[in-house]
Amino acid sequence: MKQWKILMMFILALATSGIAFSQGEQERLNTLAFEMPRRPGAVFSHDDHTQTTEISDDCAICHHVYANKTLVPDESSEDNACSDCHSLQPDRKNSISLVNAFHKRCKECHYDLGKGPVLCGECHIKK
Amino acid sequence: MSGNETISIEKSTDDAVENGLSRLTPQRVSHVINQVLHQETGARFKAYVDTCMRCGLCSDACSYFLSNDRDPSFSPAAKVKQTIWEMLAKKGKVSKDFLRRAVHIAHLECNVCRRCSMYCPFGIDIAYMMLLVRRICHKLEITPQYIQDTVNSHSVTMNQMWVKEDEWIDTLQWQEEDGREEFEDLRIPLDKQGVDIMYSVIAPEPKFQAGLIYQAAVIMHAAGMNWTMPASPGWDNSNMAMFTGDNEISGRIARTFFESAARLNVKRIVMGECGHAFRSTYDVGNRALSWAMPPFEVVHAIEFYHELLTAGRISIKKKFTKRVTLHDPCNVSRGRGLHNMARKIVNMTCSNFTEMTPNKEHNLCCGAGGGVVNCGPPYKKERMVNNRVKAEQLAATGAEVLIAPCHNCHSGLEDIIHHYKLNMEVKFLGDILFETMEKKIYRPEE
Amino acid sequence: MEKKQSWDWNTDLKEIPVGEWKARFNWVEELNISPDGENIASVVNVDEAAFKICVNGHVGDTEYEKIWSLKSLPDNGFAAFVCADEEWTLIVNGQEWSSWFDFIWDLHITPDGKHMGFAFQKEGEYGMAIDGLPWNRVYSNMAGMTLSNTGTSAAVVQVVPMKAADVDGFKQGLFSVAVNGNTFHNTFLNIWDISFDRAGQNLAAGIRLDREAYTIVKNDVIWDRKFQGVWKPIFSNSGNVLAPVRDAGKWKLFMDNEPFWKKGYDQLWKITPSPANNDVATIVANHFGKWSVAVNDKVWKMTCDTMISDILYSDNGSCLVAVLKDKGLWNLAVNQTPWNLSADKVFTPCISPDGYLVAVVVEKKGKFHLVVNNKIIAGNYDLMTTPVFSPDQSKILIKGVEKGVYKRRVISI
Amino acid sequence: MGPMVWISALICIFGLLVKFILIIKEVYEKERYLLSYITVRHSLRSIIAWLIPFYPRSTRMRPVYYGISYLFHVLLFLLPVFLMSHIVLINESFNLSWPAMNDTAADILTIGVIFALVFFVLRRRFIPDVRFLTSFMDYILILMVLLPFVTGFLAYHQVILYKWIVIAHVLSGEVLLIVIPFSRFSHMITAPLTRAYTGSEFGNIRHARDW
Question: Domain D3-31+60-205, CATH 1.20.950.20 — does that match?
Answer without folding.
Answer: yes
